[in-house]
Design a protein that fits this description.
Order of helices and strands: EEEHEHHEHEHHEEEHEHEHEHHHHHH
Shape: globular
Oligomer: single chain
Number of strands: 12
Bound molecules: flavin mononucleotide
CATH class of the largest domain: Alpha Beta
CATH architecture of the largest domain: Alpha-Beta Barrel
Structural class: alpha/beta
Radius of gyration: 21 Å
Length: 402
């Protein structure tokens, strides 16, 4: 039987999850992706500008699971664009190593997979959910599953070149409520030999607004024989158990919930192992993680880029703490690691983690959009011609697409 929740001792868990039972032995299985077995069945979502090697390594130290790179454009990678190659890179200690590809051209995607496999990558994912106007307006990202044959060519080319390395795809529900594509995507993924499909249960029109539609995840699961990964609105570890139980999905993908909260992966490992999630860190402990993160970024990107990137991170790490707005303003001026250390030395280390920050949305606003597609795009959905690439490698990092 599931352990009975100690709701009275769960003051550090939001109201939504107070009564959620911990996983009981044998309730969930490791996520099977080709030869890989991932336990707990937890995947760090690919996030542009976020899931670079330093952040993946930090998350991995807290927990366990699969930690996916940000989207890497096949064009940039194949052209040996310096920055793209750096973003795709990893270190010896990262196993399994997982890379997400962005491409709308089967030849490029296949070639990139071959190169990655040669380079020792253990898993590749294909981004089919990017909702950015510039991308969909050229028929890329979330627009690709509108054309199942093109999608089939892309996935097929990747699988053929991957050998034993599992290939997965990550999609949204569709373009908008009228044009849903995830069922077709599930069918194609299965037919073309993908090892799993991840569903961000929002349409491209919804961007990141509203609540993710977990029923769509359950629907996809009921139709697919390959593993289904559920994605959307896992803010706390117990949300993952709720999603798995509500949808029957085989694993969860965690995005914004871990922004400035890499310890979420420790809590996820605990609840999947049937243990209560640990208390979140106080401000002193958060400071230590923040500085650890900053040092890792400096080591990987060099000080100027790292400190530039730390601006968004410090905002996420300090969200909800007392006087954090004033602190953030000063943190934004910082250009050297030493200054960051000096500034943070003054915080009240004993301040507990704010309950208000547990489910506070981070990373994206709540706006919606009308999705742009190429002129006449819906006239021939059987067309498999690859669209022309919409952006160059340098732009890709700023697209934040998925
Ligand atoms: C800053 C940011 C960057 C993202 N970049 C990517 C990306 O490169 N590839 C991708 O497939 N999804 C990307 N996404 C979408 C996430 O992977 C995920 O699908 C989405 O955030 C929903 O999950 P969540 O509710 O847990 O955040 C991005 C999301 C954010 C917030």
């Amino acid at each position: 039987m599931a352990s009975s929740p100690q709701s009275s001792g769960r003051s550090h868990v939001s109201e939504t999850n107070r009564e959620v039972a911990l996983a009981h032995a044998g309730e969930f299985e490791a996520l099977a992706l080709g030869p890989l077995r991932i336990w707990p069945p937890v995947v760090l979502a690919p996030m542009a500008g976020v899931t670079n090697y330093p952040f993946r390594a930090l998350c991995r130290e807290f927990g366990a699971g699969l930690y996916v790179s940000e989207m890497i454009t096949a064009r940039g990678y194949l052209n040996n664009n310096r920055r793209t190659v750096l973003l795709a890179s990893s270190r010896e200690d990262e196993r399994p190593r997982s890379v997400q590809i962005y491409s709308s051209d089967p030849r490029d995607a296949g070639e990139m997979v071959a190169r990655l496999v040669e380079d020792g990558v253990d898993h590749v994912d294909l981004n089919l959910g990017c909702p950015v106007r510039k991308v969909t307006a050229h028929g890329g990202g979330a627009a690709i599953p509108v054309k199942p044959k093109l999608l089939a060519h892309l996935v097929g080319a990747m699988v053929r070149n991957a050998g034993r390395v599992p290939v997965t795809i990550k999609v949204r529900k569709g373009i908008d409520a009228e044009l849903l594509t995830y069922r077709d995507a599930g069918r194609v993924a299965e037919e073309e030999g993908a090892s799993a499909i991840g569903l961000h249960a929002r349409t491209a029109a919804q961007l990141y607004s509203g609540e993710a539609d977990w029923e769509a995840i359950a629907d996809l699961k009921s139709r697919c024989s390959i593993p289904v990964l559920g994605n959307g609105d896992i803010w706390e570890s117990l949300d993952a158990l709720r999603m798995m139980r509500a949808t029957g999905c085989d694993g969860v993908i965690v995005g914004r919930g871990c922004l400035g909260r890499p310890w979420l992966f420790r809590e996820l490992a605990q609840v999947f192992d049937g243990r209560e999630p640990q208390l979140p860190p106080n401000l002193g402990e958060v400071r230590a993680v923040m500085l650890d993160h900053a040092r890792r970024l400096v080591e990987f990107f060099g000080e100027p880029t790292a400190l530039q990137q730390m601006r968004k991170w410090t905002a996420w790490y300090t969200k909800g703490f007392r006087n954090s707005a004033a602190l953030r303003e000063r943190l934004h001026q910082v250009t050297r690691l030493g200054e960051l250390e000096a500034l943070l030395a003054g915080v009240d280390a004993s301040e507990p983690f704010p309950a208000s920050a547990l489910r506070a949305h981070r990373g994206k606003s709540g706006r919606t959009q009308k999705v742009s597609l190429p002129q006449g795009y819906l006239d021939d959905r059987d067309d498999a011609t690859p669209p022309c690439e919409a952006f160059d490698a340098a732009e890709a990092e700023s697209l934040e697409g998925g």
